Amino acid sequence: MLLSTRVRRRNRHRRCTRCCRAPFRDCVGAIENEKENSRDHGSLEGPLFTSDKMMLFDFTSAQNVDDWREMSDTVRTVGKSKAVLTLQTSQLFQRAVFFTLLNPQANGAGFAGVRTPTNLDLSRFKDIEITCRGQGQNSNYKISLRHKGQDSNADLSYEQFFTVLMSNDEFSTVTLPLKDFKPYYRGHEMPDGEPLDTTNITMFEFQIYGGVYMPIKQRGVSALEIETVAAVFT
């Protein structure tokens, strides 16, 4: 998707928000080629830019979601939950569906999620926007980010919670300010933890949770239908 002349002029002195950090004008000509790359896996091989946002995941045109892997509570002995991310394709539309079976412990301990590796510098962005809708038994989800290549259970995750519109015919946009991602460790917020390094985000995760340490308790079968995930400029 080529940018207009007006947007080209406005972006003359901006630098690319991808890892290359090249002058923005040098990257504009590559955007059309990146569009084809980004369709392959619904991943971040080639984010698409408009004048106000960068597309991170466009599930309406992705060919597959092979880069996403499950990360649920079955990594622990007592875990019994399950998550799957798949593409739903019809003659009229395509989107991703995040299916979950949440079987928490009596205290609400339990989670089901899917994650993908990323290579993102979002320091010039303000929000993450998700176009989605929910169905099933639960409506409370969270996005979990990691930075600097950290992927161990001993590392902090950076999380933000949201409630999705429950509907079988209407999508809504969920807005998550990047400044509101807080450090967590195994369900506990860590107020003194290192802040999220938005220049080096290396993992993106969708997750549904049982609600341990929280007033909200969830269990059962749910589906989060997702069309797009974008980062919005400051």
Descriptive report:
It contains 3 helices and 14 strands. By secondary structure, it is mainly beta. The chain has a single domain (60-232), classed as Sandwich (Jelly Rolls). The strands form 2 sheets. Strands 1, 2, 4, 5, 7, 10 and 14 form a 7-stranded antiparallel beta sheet that branches. Strands 3-6-13-8-9-11-12 form a 7-stranded antiparallel beta sheet, with no helix packed on it. β1 and β2 (53-58) form a beta hairpin. The protein is globular and about 45 Å long. Residues 1-39 have low confidence and may be disordered.
Q: Which features does this protein show?
A:
234 residues; mainly beta; Jelly Rolls; seven-stranded antiparallel β-sheet
CATH H-level superfamily title:
Galactose-binding lectin
CATH topology: Jelly Rolls
By CATH reckoning, the class would read Mainly Beta
Evaluate the radius of gyration. Answer: 18 Å
Note the run of SSEs as H and E. Answer: HHHEEEEEEEEEEEEEE
The CATH architecture assignment turns out to be: Sandwich
Low-confidence stretches: 1-39
Report the total helices: 3
* Number of strand segments: 14
- Could you tell me how far the N terminus lies from the C terminus, measured between alpha carbons in angstroms? 21 Å
Question: So what's the overall shape?
Answer: globular
Tell me the number of structural domains.
Answer: 1
InterPro entries: Galactose-bd-like_sf (IPR008979), NADH-UbQ_OxRdtase-assoc_prot30 (IPR013857), NDUFAF1 (IPR039131)
Pfam families: CIA30
Family: Belongs to the CIA30 family.
Domain NADH:ubiquinone oxidoreductase intermediate-associated protein: 57-216
